[in-house]
Structures are given as C-alpha cells and as structure tokens.
C-alpha cells in the first residue's frame, strides 16, 4: 500500500477525490482514429520540411529533421540547424517565424533574441538553432539517436562537421 506525503493512505486519497469530482470517463470519441493521427503527422512533416527549407535559404548548415514523436510526448519533429554567428541565428529565427505565421498561421513560443542556442516551439515542430560549439556540446542528434531522420530535398552536409 502506498503512502502519500502526508502519511495518509493513497487509496483513501483517491477515494476522496473520486467522491468529490467523480470518475474520469473516456469515450471512443476521445481517441483519434489512426488515419487522423497519420494525417496530423503528415501535416507536421510538411511544416517541418518547409521550415528546414527556409533555414537552408538563410545559409544554415547541417540541417537535420528528426521524427521524435515515438520518443517524446510533447512534439512530433525536431529541426536542428547550425548558424555561424548571432546575427545569422537571428536571421534564421526571424525568417522561420515569418513563414510559419504567414503561410501556416502558427506562432512560436520560445526565444525572441539570438543566443548560442535559440529554440522555437511551434507545438508539433520544435526548431533548435545552434552556434557550432553549443551544437557539438548538446549533441541532440546523439541524445535522440533513436529518432527517425527525415531525408530533405536539399543538401545539408556541412564541410565543417566531422
């Protein structure tokens, strides 16, 4: 039997909550159909590739898109890019925000000023813009090594990457 932090019985605590608020009931309509889930993934993939293309146009290097949905509960895709200066970080972030808002009607939560690691969170897609030293230090590609890499329609290989 589990004890809660106040030393009481956890079962009793849950009984009290159920009496006060009622039981949680799920219906079949609470779950998405598998095809709807796949449609959401496809829409998010399309969005992620569009943002990666924007980063490529602003000369970001070593652009990676990773399907991380099976590994994390809070997003579907990571975009990881390298910029070589803070002004370039700012330019990449600004262009990505503009395209996301104008073409996809999405706004990013996250950093608004360039740092050595700028994060733009669009919910289903999270963009990481790194300076080279921070990208190597945090090494998200290795940390999420089981993520599925997405092949992009442009060359993203950096001559500086090992």
Automatic annotation (TrEMBL):
Q: What Pfam families is this protein classified in?
A: RsfS
Q: Does the keyword Plastid apply?
A: yes
- A single GO molecular function, which one? ribosomal large subunit binding
A Gene Ontology CC term for this entry? Answer: chloroplast
Going by the UniProt record, its keywords in alphabetical order are:
Chloroplast, Plastid, Transit peptide
Q: Where in the cell is it found?
A: Plastid, Chloroplast
Q: Does the keyword Transit peptide apply?
A: yes
**What family is this?**
Belongs to the Iojap/RsfS family.
Report the protein name in the record.
Answer: Protein Iojap, chloroplastic
Q: What's the source species for this entry?
A: Ananas comosus
GN (gene name)? LOC109711797
């Amino acid at each position: 039997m589990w004890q809660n932090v106040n030393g009481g019985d956890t079962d009793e605590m849950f009984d009290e909550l159920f009496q006060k608020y009622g039981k949680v009931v799920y219906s079949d309509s609470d779950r998405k159909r598998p095809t709807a889930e796949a449609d959401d993934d496809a829409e998010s993939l399309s969005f992620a590739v569009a943002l990666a293309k924007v980063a490529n146009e602003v000369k970001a290097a070593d652009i990676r898109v990773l399907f991380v949905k099976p590994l994390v509960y809070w997003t579907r895709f990571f975009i990881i890019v390298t910029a070589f200066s803070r002004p370039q970080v700012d330019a990449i972030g600004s262009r990505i925000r503009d395209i996301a808002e104008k073409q996809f009607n999405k706004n990013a939560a996250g950093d608004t000023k360039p740092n050595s690691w700028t994060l733009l969170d669009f919910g289903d897609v999270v963009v990481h813009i790194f300076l080279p030293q921070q990208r190597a230090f945090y090494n998200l590609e290795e940390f999420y090594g089981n993520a599925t890499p997405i092949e992009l329609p442009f060359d993203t290989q950096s001559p500086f990457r090992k």
